[in-house]
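User:
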Amino acid sequence: MPELLFVYGTLRKARDGSLHPFLRRQAEFMAYAQLPGGLYLIDTYPGAVLRPAAGQVIHGELYRLLHPRRTLAQLDDYEECSASFPEPREYRRERVGLTLADNSRHQAWAYIYQYATDKLCPLDSGDFSTFLPDTHVKRRSVRRIE
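Assistant: Predicted structure:
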């Protein structure tokens, strides 16, 4: 069974594509997908939570990982949720259930936000790519991953 990854933020095929080249080398795009949950703005990057209001979804992309162990280890370090980082960690990687446009269901890894969201700005569209053009290129200093 292939290892799948759902991405909803800076690893997506964004209009600027600043972090996507890493994923493009490590995985194959399968489809656009939706995850039941809420999306929040944390500084200039998103956080997904699995506590959705009725009908709330997070839009993202589903990838098949070519080298799962190595790629997930690098992404865990990028997301600062590996054992190298102290608790409490901002994100955790977990398996989630997704729905594709054809209504098929898949299980995939996703990075889920762990902290309180009551003081964060919700991204009601559930789609971080609509937010990227104004912030991702101009103000975010990107940590490079190989």
